[in-house]
Amino acid sequence: MTLTIWLHEARRAGPAALLAPPAALLFAAAIAVFIRATNGSRAQAQTLLLAGLEAITPLAVAMVALTIVTRESCRELHLSLPTPHLATIGRRLGVLGAVAAVLCLAYAAVVALAGYRTGSSGVAALLVWAAPTLWLAGFAALVAAATRSTVLASSAVALVWLAEQVWASAFVGSPLLRPLFLFFTSRVGDGPGWAANRVGLLAGGLLFLAVTAAVLSKPERLLSEEDA
Amino acid sequence: MTALLAVARYEFRMQARKRSLWIAATLLGGALIVLQGDRGPRSLPVGTPAREVMGTWALLFAILMPLAYGMLLADRLVRDRKLRVEPLLESLPHAPATRLAGKYLGGIGACALPGLAALLLAAITELPKRHDPALIGWALVAFVVVTLPGIAMVAGFALVCPVIVSVPLFRVLFVGYWFWGNMLAPDFLPSLTGTLLTPIGDYGATWLLANGHTALFAGTPGFLSFLRPDPSAATAALSVAVVVLCGLIPLAAAAVVAHRSTRQTWPSKA
C-alpha cells in the first residue's frame, strides 16, 4: 500500500522529476567527453564533471521542486482528502530527492572509476552535491510556496544561481555570504572553509524546507486560478 | 493580418498585466543595480559620453533580466494544451502559424516593456548627475541594439522549446545556456560567448561603448572563430540581425509542424 502511494506520487510528480536530474548529469558528462575528444585538457573535463554534480544538478532539482510545489491541477480535491496536502507534496519532493541522490551517487562512482576527482573522498563526498542541492531546492520550494508563482520562483532560483556564478569572488570573500555559496568545491576547492560552507548550506536548506512545510500546512494559501 | 494583430494584441495585454513579469524583472534588475560593483555604470566618471553610459546600463540589465522573460514565456504554448483549449484554438479560421506569430510578437512586446522602462529609468536617474539630455535618446538606441534582439531570441526559444523538453527542463537548460553562451569566458571552455550569436548584446554594447574596449567578450578568440569578427558598427548590426533570425528558427520549425499536423488531422475533423 505504501509503495503504491509512492509510485503514484512519482507519476504525479511528472516526468520532469524523473528526467531532469539524469539529463543534467548526462549533459555535463557529454560536454566533458566532447572537451576531451577535441583535445581539451584533463583539468577542464574534471571541472565540468564536478560542475555537473555541484552546479547543474542542484539547478535541475530546484526547478523541478518549484514545479512540484506550484503545479497541482486538482488542489481543491486534495484538500478534501484525509491525507494532508503537505504529505502529498512531501512525497513528491521525496521522490525527486531519491532519484537525484541515486543518480548522483552512481555518477560520482563512474567519474571516480574513470580517474577524475570530484572533491572530497569518503562520506564527505556526498556533501559536494547534497548540500547545494538541498539549499537550492529548499529555496525554490519556499519561494514557490510563498509566491504561488512558477515565474517568480524560477526567476529567483535563476537569479541566485547566476549571481553566485558571476560574482563568485564576492561570495567567497565575504564571511557573511560564504555559507550561501553553492559552488565552493568547484571554485575554491575542498580545503579550509569547505566543511563550514557545506554545513551552512545544509542548515540553510533544512531551514528553507521547514518554513516551506509551515507555509504548506495552510494549503488554502496555494489556491489560485492560474499563475498570476 | 488582422488575425495576427488581434492575437498579438491579446497576448501582449495578457502578459503585460501579469504581476509576476513586473516583480521578476524588478527583482533581477534591482539585484543588478546592487551587485554592479565598481565596473558598473554608476562608477563611470562625469563627462563620460551618453552613449557609453547607456550602453553600459543596457549591458548590465541584459545580464539577468532576460531570464525573467524566458521564465514567463516558457508556458505560453504548453498552457493551451494544459487548459485543454488547444483544439478550440485550432478550430479557428486562422492558420496555426498566425497564432504562433501573434503569441511571439505579443510576448516580445510585453517583455520589452520592463526592459524599456529599466533603461529609461536609468537615463532619468543619470540626468541630474550628468546633465546630458542625450541620455534619453541613447537609452532608446541601446534598447533597440542591445535589449530588443535578445528578447526576440529568448521569446522564440521560450515559446517553442518547452513543448518538446517540458517547462521545468527548459528552465534548467535556459539558465545553464545563458551562463555558458553569454558570460563564460571562451578561453575556459568552448562556448558561444563573444560570438555574433550572443543574445546578451555583446556586439551592440561594444559599439555603444566606442572606447576601444569590448563590453564583455565580443570578438575574443575562441570556439567557432568565423562567428567572432572584430566589433564595429557593421558587426553590431550583423549581430542584431543574426540574433533575431536565430529566434525565428524554432518558430518556423514549429509553424511547419503545426501546419502539417493540421493538414493530417483535417479529414478526421471533417
Structure description:
Chain A: The chain crosses the membrane at residues 16-35, 47-69, 89-116, 123-146, 166-184, 196-216. Chain A: It comes from Asanoa hainanensis. Chain A: This is ABC-2 type transport system permease protein. Chain A: Keywords: Membrane, Transmembrane, Transmembrane helix. The complex is a heterodimer of chains A (228) and B (270). Chain A contains 10 helices and no strands. Chain A has one domain (2-222). Chain A is mainly α. Chain B has helices spanning 2-16, 19-35, 50-73, 76-82, 86-90, 96-130, 134-165, 167-182, 202-209, 233-269. Chain B has 10 helices and no strands. The longest helix of chain B is centred in the C-terminal third of the chain and has 37 residues, at 233-269. Helices cover 73% and strands 0% of the residues of chain B. The model of chain B is unreliable at 266-270 (pLDDT under 50). Chain B has one domain. In chain B, helix 1 (2-16) crosses helix 6 and helix 3 (50-73) packs parallel to helix 7 (134-165). Chain A binds chain B through residues 14-16, 19-20, 23-24, 27, 31, 34-35, 38, 40, 44, 48, 56, 59-60, 63-64, 67, 73, 147, 149-152, 154-159, 161-163, 165-167, 170, 227-228, and chain B through 18-21, 23-24, 27-28, 31, 35, 37, 63-64, 67-68, 71-72, 74-75, 82, 166-169, 171-172, 174-176, 178-179, 183, 188-190.
